[in-house]
Amino acid sequence: MKVISAKEANAKTIEVLNNCAIKELDEIMNNIQNEINEGHFYYSGDGYLDEVNKKTLKKLGYKVETGLQYNEAYYSISWENV
């Protein structure tokens, strides 16, 4: 096994987190497009929304809400009346 420094480990972890965030945002945008095609102005998902993606969506003009219900995380993204 190759021994790596803490700096390398940190860089690799950040890379993995960034890749996960990119994948999540791509999935969300595909789901938003599906909702648009259905004539809806919102998309909801289960789980936690990456904070970077939340900020990105808000910058793009989306209304983003997150919360917990029965200890289950969820998020809602809307683009009506923006």
Query: How many DSSP-defined strands?
Result: 3
**Oligomerization status of the protein chains:** single chain
Query: Could you give the distance between the termini?
Result: 53 Å
Domain tally: 1
Helix count from the secondary structure assignment: 2
Largest sheet report:
3 strands, antiparallel
Helical amount: 40-55%
Q: What do the pLDDT scores average to? A: 95
Low-confidence stretches: none
Gross morphology is elongated
Instruction: Evaluate the radius of gyration.
Output: 16 Å
State which percent range the strand residues make up.
15-25%
What does it look like?
By secondary structure, the chain is of the alpha+beta class. The protein has one domain (6-78). It has 2 helices and 3 strands, in the order αβαββ. It has helices at 6-37, 51-59, and strands spanning 42-46, 63-69, 72-78. A 3-stranded antiparallel sheet has the order 1-3-2. Strand 2 and strand 3 (72-78) form a beta hairpin. It is elongated and about 55 Å long. It starts with 5 loop residues before the first helix and ends with a strand.
Please outline what is shown here:
With 82 residues, the chain is of the alpha+beta class.
Main traits of this protein?
82 residues; alpha+beta; 3-stranded antiparallel β-sheet; 3 strands
Strand and helix map with partners:
Layout: H1 6-37, E1 42-46, H2 51-59, E2 63-69, E3 72-78
Antiparallel strand pairs: 1-3, 2-3
